Amino acid sequence: MSMLKIKVLQFKLPGITIPLAVAAEPEQFIGDLSDPDQTPCWADVWPAARALAKYIWSGPALKGVSVLELGAGVGLPGVVCGLKGATVAFSDFQPLALELCRHNAVLNQLQQYRLLLQDWRSFSLRERFKLVLASDIAYEPRLLPHLKSVLLQTVQKGGSIYLTHDHRPVTFAFIEEVMATGLFAEERHRIPVTVDDPLRPHYQIDLHILKCVGHGDNPGPGSSKE
Length: 226
What we know:
Elements: E1 6-13, E2 16-23, H1 47-58, E3 66-70, H2 76-83, E4 87-92, H3 95-107, E5 113-117, E6 129-135, H4 144-154, E7 155-165, H5 169-179, E8 184-194, E9 202-212
Parallel strand pairs: 3-4, 3-6, 4-5, 6-7
Antiparallel strand pairs: 1-2, 7-9, 8-9
Helix pairs in contact: 1-2
């Protein structure tokens, strides 16, 4: 892997241990602290991704299901989908994140996956998926109109969006805006997660399942389609 030094974690789920490559030295990728694009959130696995992976592993069958993971980072939820037989597209705007996704797909012997270099602000993918994964990515206000547009143009009618976050007020508000389109039915869960961090080992992660019950035209950033 070019300039990216990695370390491999072991992520345990019932009946399986998943090897997971993350950046060994994420601090080397920190740029201008005033620019969120230069914060290496992609370099590690976060509690919301752990919670989503946990839910997916114990959830419905995914054999042959088309899955898109947005803001994939290291790709843990997508990897779990792949282990359950899904066809997975890992998407991120950061090439190094896609390196980690590729590494993790190979480590876990995924058979059907691809890597998509896509920025929500110039999203060019014209394809819909049965399941869209959004793990703790709805928090940067300037990007939320673009994320909303991407979600609406990538989920199939009858498909679902799984969105997790660490009880963020901005994300709850974003969900309300997406629901206001009238295109989704919502189901909510709280998922407990424990991590190896003495300062904050326990989390209660919010999971929103948005089932797409209708389709409008792609509304574009900042607008809504009834």
